[in-house]
Design brief:
Helix content: 55-70%
Strand content: under 5%
Number of domains: 1
Protein name: DUF4145 domain-containing protein
Structural class: mainly alpha
Shape: globular
CATH topology: Four Helix Bundle (Hemerythrin (Met), subunit A)
Keywords: Plasmid
């Protein structure tokens, strides 16, 4: 079992303030679960499931920001996979991004609809958090004044 204090210090990094509110809420819940997973390892997997929900919320928000509908012609909400395809169709995601976001659909589905208890290794969790955060920063770059402050004070 991992040391809870180490897990908490590693997992609870700052969430970029400029991310959409729902994305931040899912990330916050995910990090909280991961932080407490030192006491019960399966909480880390639940936490990564929340990151999966954050990625879907991000794609929905990104679609809205670019004027795409979240509702299909039959008046039903588009699924995560269809939203990614619509963003690709409108050249708002490149091939690499499409591959990445589709892989998050698979991970999210695996974690949120498990056929058995899944205990992810912490190294996988931390790498996924870092990569998901990097990809979210591509969709939602920091406002110019934040980026300038960061460059001035690295």
């Amino acid at each position: 079992m991992a040391d809870p204090q180490y897990v908490a210090n590693t997992a609870l990094g700052p969430i970029p303030e400029h991310f959409p509110e729902l994305v931040k809420a899912f990330i916050h819940r995910g990090l909280a679960c991961i932080a407490y997973s030192g006491f019960y390892n399966l909480l880390a997997t639940i936490g990564m499931g929340q990151f999966g929900m954050a990625t879907e919320a991000a794609i929905r928000e990104y679609s809205l920001q670019h004027g795409l509908s979240l509702i299909d012609p039959n008046s039903k909400p588009y699924g995560f996979h269809n939203l990614i395809n619509n963003l690709k169709r409108d050249s708002l995601l490149d091939d690499r991004q499409v591959d990445f976001w589709k892989s998050t659909v698979k991970l999210r589905n695996y974690l949120l609809h498990p056929e058995e208890n899944v205990a992810l290794d912490y190294s996988i969790i931390y790498i996924n958090i870092a990569v998901i955060t990097e990809e979210l920063l591509i969709l939602f770059p920091p406002p110019m004044e934040v980026a300038c402050r960061t460059l001035e004070n690295p």
